[in-house]
Amino acid sequence: MSEETTELPAGLRDVADLDLKPALEAMLMVVDEPATEEHLAKLLQRPRRQIAGALRELADEYVTQGRGFELRFVAGGWRFYTRPEYAAAVERLVLEGQTARLTQAALETLAVVAYRQPVSRSRVSAVRGVNCDGVMRTLLQRGLIEEAGTEPETGAILYRTTNYFLERMGLRGLDELPELAPFLPEAEAIEAETQEGVPSFDPDAPDDGPDTPVGRGTDDVDDQTEL
């Protein structure tokens, strides 16, 4: 294979002046699959032989230094992996987010979605009597609820529970939910609350933006507690 590198636009040619090993480390920190030597050589404008040598030197350095990670050549490319002897620490970190307890506000919001689904964010807020933007965002991020189309009348995004919700609750289906729905207000009872023109929930919107209904509290603070 030719050792020549592919020409890049003028604005990118300064990558050839970067220190090679730190540049490789930075790139390998963000890849989601093993990076080939050919691809790295093209991006860094270096010969493949030079890239291969630097990668092997880095791998040896990490072993010599006893770092908590290592650089492996797998599936035709290079990628960082945690060292097996530290698996217990990594496992605790990964499992912590899965076992963290939901706050009371999150549980109440999840219950409203579960029993009234598909339901819009404004209707959930109307049932609870507080703005639920932050809590809804958390439930989305935790994979407990998901988008389920839009409301024909208003265009508001609708939400429903996920299969992961059923798994975490130990349910085979929504028909196994406890009989709590009669204690929640009917849709007609909260219709007036949803006529305030509250826009559909935006998962990327700031917590305390202009969309927060005037005169209504918020559960956004709960989004940062035990979640």
State the helicity in percent bands.
Answer: 25-40%
Shape type: elongated
Give me the secondary-structure category.
Answer: alpha+beta
Write the H/E string, N to C.
HHHEEHHEHEHEEHE
Distance between the termini: 52 Å
Largest sheet: 3 strands, antiparallel
Low-confidence parts, pLDDT < 50 over ≥5 residues?
1-6, 190-216, 221-227
List the total number of helices.
8
Q: Beta-strand level of the residues, as a percent range?
A: 5-15%
- The quaternary organization reads as single chain
Strand order of the largest sheet: 3-6-5
Total beta strands: 7
- pLDDT average, as an integer? 78
- Rounded Rg: 26 Å
Describe the structure.
A hairpin with a 6-residue loop joins strand 5 (145-150) and strand 6. The protein is 37% helix and 13% strand. The chain is built from 8 helices and 7 strands, in the order H-H-H-E-E-H-H-E-H-E-H-E-E-H-E.
